[in-house]
């Protein structure tokens, strides 16, 4: 039945090695994050057009060709978000909501992105960018050790988001480091679930330690903003 439903893609090359039932899931399950990332991006350099990735019974049709990507992302029949978005549990926001709700909400929000309002955000961007540069300078001045820019960029991005939406300096309050850690960890767990087919079913995932940790991270993040 699964093969019959997905026979439209039967002529497309398939990511190898492929095994029945598990598909390509073995490339991601139980592997370090760096290996998972390499396994995920490698086929995009090998295939010029479409290709198949099978995560258990789930077929993903992938491409990195810009013309194909533009055709897909602008086609009205391809705007519904895939099941992977459900793992983020943000179904009431523009990120994860279904297409029909997204379309009406997006139209309502269009006036919020006019030139005048966007220009009013520039001081926020400047302030956050200056803080980012200052923090990176302090990190570099500590002496010849390797510095990961991701934590600094994550903090800067969140400051910009909060400053242009909530309208206050949320990250100037105490507990900001814990908030940033919980946000990063929550997204890390969601991304991990997307690539681990044995975590797809909610009935199984709720018994895993990742589910409990994800729920705790979400609770702490919601509590920070509610307060």
Query: What's the shape?
Result: globular
Q: Provide the helix percentage.
A: 40-55%
Uncertain segments of ≥5 residues (pLDDT<50)? none
Q: How are helices and strands ordered from N to C?
A: HHEEHHHHHHHH
Query: How far apart are the first and last residues' alpha carbons, in Å?
Result: 50 Å
Radius of gyration: 21 Å
Count of DSSP H/I helices: 10
> Would you tell me the structural class of the helices and strands?
mainly alpha
Proportion of residues in β-strands? under 5%
The strand count comes to 2
- Average pLDDT for all residues: 87
Number of domains: 2
Largest sheet properties: 2 strands, antiparallel
Name the strands of the widest sheet in spatial order: 1-2
GO molecular function, one term: iron ion binding
InterPro entries: Cyt_P450, Cyt_P450_sf, Cytochrome_P450_Monoox
Pfam families: p450
Cofactor: heme
Please tell me about this protein's structure.
With 227 residues, the protein is mostly helical. 52% of the residues lie in helices and 4% in strands. It has two domains: 1-78, no CATH class; 110-226, no CATH class. Strands 1-2 form a two-stranded antiparallel sheet. Strand 1 and strand 2 (58-62) form a beta hairpin. The chain is globular, with a radius of gyration of 21 Å. The N and C termini lie far apart (50 Å). Keywords: Endoplasmic reticulum, Heme, Iron, Membrane, Metal-binding, Microsome, Monooxygenase, Oxidoreductase. GO terms for molecular function: heme binding; iron ion binding; monooxygenase activity; oxidoreductase activity, acting on paired donors, with incorporation or reduction of molecular oxygen.
